[in-house]
């Protein structure tokens, strides 16, 4: 059988190429259009989310303070200090630590490596002068790119992070294995080192650009009385009373007193090349160098829990008394957000190492359902399908009576949980957990007291907000009732005075919660069982469900 020819008006044959417009598969245009619409919707959701985050950041900066606008810093000029020395002359390694803004050098000083300690990570800590912190803090601005670089004795450079500091010393950490010889602080922190005015010492340091190890000859300031380094009982409340001594250079060096900044953070060597302290400050007007004795340095490091820590607890970490940390460049918005949401500040290096905050109020659970018109796209979180197994009228009633409730200390959030709209003395109120207003002690343990200074806010998506007032609470049952004056529309409060059937242990139940920021509904299923004997709440009628929830579902 002969196939008919495909002809044009001119009578010539036209061969149809695969994939040409004339042979598009059925439904091609509709599928393409759907894909385009999905992409456009995705980008629209991203823009809405970015605008919302920017607005929140602007509000937080308005409250906590806006960082200064970008500035152009002048480059730091290193001057030659002291005389060249060999690394073999020192009982420990000496590094150079520099502060950069992009590629611009802003400051440079020296540092001493410390023993590895009990860290599970491959890291090296360097102790240096707190002058580095002052330079860092004074040069910060909005969206800055300040960074620390550590130059090792072998000439290699490593990026560093500012971990801890006080008024005298600072700890810079490099995420790499030990390079060089660490300072044996405990062995060198011996009792009673007597200084005589005629004795000359060496203040050592390493230049950053050249990498040369240099040392300046110094002696006790002639106007000062004889100084004794005595052992004493360490009391962190008496930092300002700790002994230090003033030393004066024997020679004058090129660049004047400013050149002595290079010895800051470096060791001071006494007789027989024994390290007796560390340079911590320079008075550029009088050309005096302030020295921290080894005994005090050892006490600082033990107080920082760097030397022989008694315990390591990352889940309940708190900074040692009179020890501080400074959060790195690029994390200012993150810090403002944590403060606004009432979360604890992260331990040192937690942000740099991409650490995560656990047990957040915003953590989702179960099957997540967005409200109609939710602008940020589908939540895409479903541990188990719940909502589709419930009747439509049940889902609708839940969405109209389950609210988010949060308490605040001023601008900072104190607690967040879920509430149920109920009929209360001919008005609508919120039945919720008394944890919303319970006071807590310094160890974050909730007490059997109520904090009456808290401000309460009620939220029903998408845009209904109201200020609440605590009307009733029972710490025995751990419940609270919150009233609000503003009238919500399209709500369906629960009538809790009507009789309910008693739950049987074999029955299946659904636990519902509402996320506090976006108002997403969450649900998980489980069973019912009798109350545990170890339950702290003094109520025999309580039952326990096996639903897996987060604390925001309280």
Structural topology:
Blueprint: H1 28-64, E1 83-84, E2 95-101, E3 104-113, E4 124-129, H2 131-138, E5 146-151, E6 157-165, E7 169-174, H3 185-188, E8 193-194, E9 200-206, E10 213-220, E11 228-229, E12 245-249, E13 267-269, E14 275-283, E15 288-293, H4 294-303, H5 332-340, E16 367-369, H6 392-401, E17 402-409, E18 412-424, E19 427-433, E20 438-440, E21 446-450, E22 455-460, E23 464-474, E24 479-484, E25 508-514, E26 521-530, E27 543-545
Antiparallel strand pairs: 1-10, 2-3, 2-5, 3-4, 4-7, 5-6, 6-7, 8-11, 9-10, 9-13, 10-12, 12-15, 13-14, 14-15, 16-26, 17-18, 17-22, 18-19, 19-24, 20-21, 22-23, 23-24, 25-26, 26-27
Helix pairs in contact: 1-5
Number of strand elements = 27
Question: What is the first-to-last residue Cα distance?
Answer: 79 Å
Which structural class matches the secondary elements? alpha+beta
**Rg, Cα atoms, Å:** 33 Å
Strand count, sense and barrel status of the largest sheet are: 6 strands, antiparallel, barrel
Give helix % range: 10-25%
Taken as a percent bin, the fraction of beta residues is 25-35%
Query: Overall pLDDT, averaged?
Result: 78
What would you call the shape? elongated
Low-confidence regions: 1-14, 223-244
- Strand neighbour order, sheet with most strands: 9-10-12-15-14-13
What is the overall number of helices? 6
Provide a descriptive summary of the structure in words.
This protein is an alpha+beta fold and 554 residues long. Helix content is 14%, strand content 31%. It has helices at 28-64, 131-138, 185-188, 294-303, 332-340, 392-401; strands spanning 83-84, 95-101, 104-113, 124-129, 146-151, 157-165, 169-174, 193-194, 200-206, 213-220, 228-229, 245-249, 267-269, 275-283, 288-293, 367-369, 402-409, 412-424, 427-433, 438-440, 446-450, 455-460, 464-474, 479-484, 508-514, 521-530, 543-545. Strands 9-10-12-15-14-13 form a six-stranded antiparallel β-barrel. It has a six-stranded antiparallel barrel with strand order 2-3-4-7-6-5. A hairpin with a 4-residue loop joins strand 14 (275-283) and strand 15 (288-293). It is elongated, with a radius of gyration of 33 Å. The protein starts with 27 loop residues before the first helix and ends in a 9-residue tail after the last strand. Mean pLDDT is 78; it is low at 1-14 and 223-244.
């Amino acid at each position: 059988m002969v196939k008919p020819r495909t002809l044009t008006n001119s009578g010539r044959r036209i061969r149809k190429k695969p994939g040409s417009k004339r042979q598009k598969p059925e439904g091609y245009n509709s599928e393409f259009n759907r894909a385009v619409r999905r992409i456009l919707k995705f980008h629209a959701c991203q823009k809405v989310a970015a605008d919302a985050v920017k607005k929140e950041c602007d509000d937080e900066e308005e409250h906590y303070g806006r960082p200064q606008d970008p500035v152009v810093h002048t480059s730091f000029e290193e001057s030659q200090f002291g005389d060249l020395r060999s690394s073999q002359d020192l009982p420990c390694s000496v590094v150079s630590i520099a502060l950069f803004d992009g590629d611009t050098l802003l400051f440079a000083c020296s540092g001493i490596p410390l023993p590895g300690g009990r860290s599970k990570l491959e890291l090296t800590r360097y102790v240096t002068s707190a002058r580095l912190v002052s330079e860092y803090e004074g040069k910060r601005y909005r969206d800055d790119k300040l960074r620390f670089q550590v130059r090792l004795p072998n000439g290699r450079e490593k990026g560093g992070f500012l971990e801890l500091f006080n008024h005298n010393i600072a700890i810079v950490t490099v995420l790499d294995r030990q390079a060089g010889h660490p300072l044996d602080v405990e062995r060198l922190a011996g009792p009673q080192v007597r200084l005589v005015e005629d004795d000359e010492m060496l203040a050592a340091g390493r230049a950053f650009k050249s990498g040369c190890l240099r040392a300046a000859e110094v002696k006790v300031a002639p106007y000062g009385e004889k100084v004794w380094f005595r052992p004493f009982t360490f009391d962190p409340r008496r930092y300002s009373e700790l002994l230090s001594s003033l030393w004066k250079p024997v020679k004058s060096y090129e660049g004047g007193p400013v050149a002595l900044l290079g010895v800051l953070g470096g060791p001071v060597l006494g007789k027989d090349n024994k390290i007796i302290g560390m340079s911590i400050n320079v008075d550029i007007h009088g050309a005096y160098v302030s020295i921290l004795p080894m005994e005090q340095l050892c006490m600082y490091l033990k107080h920082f829990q760097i030397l022989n820590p008694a315990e390591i607890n990352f889940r309940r970490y708190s900074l040692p008394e009179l020890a501080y940390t400074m959060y790195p460049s690029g994390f200012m918005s993150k810090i403002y957000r944590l403060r606004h949401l009432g979360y604890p500040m992260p331990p040192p290096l937690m942000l740099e190492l991409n650490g995560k905050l656990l047990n957040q109020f915003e953590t989702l659970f179960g099957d997540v359902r967005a409200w109609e018109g939710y602008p940020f796209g589908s939540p895409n979180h479903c541990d188990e399908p719940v909502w589709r197994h419930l009747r439509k009228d049940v889902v609708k009633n839940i969405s109209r009576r389950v609210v988010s409730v949060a308490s605040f200390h001023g601008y900072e959030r104190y607690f967040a949980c879920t509430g149920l709209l109920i009929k209360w003395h001919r008005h609508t109120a919120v039945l919720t957990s008394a944890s919303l207003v319970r006071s807590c002690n310094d160890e974050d343990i909730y007490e059997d007291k109520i904090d009456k200074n808290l401000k309460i806010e009620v939220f029903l998506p998408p845009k209904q907000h109201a200020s609440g007032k605590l009307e009733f609470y029972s710490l025995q049952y751990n419940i609270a009732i919150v009233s609000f004056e503003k009238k919500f529309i399209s709500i369906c409060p629960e009538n809790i005075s009507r009789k309910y059937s008693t739950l049987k242990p074999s029955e299946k139940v659904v636990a519902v919660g509402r996320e506090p920021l976006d108002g997403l509904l969450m649900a998980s299923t489980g069973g019912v069982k009798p109350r545990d004997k170890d339950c702290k709440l003094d109520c025999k009628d309580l039952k326990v469900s096996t639903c897996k929830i987060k604390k925001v579902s309280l």
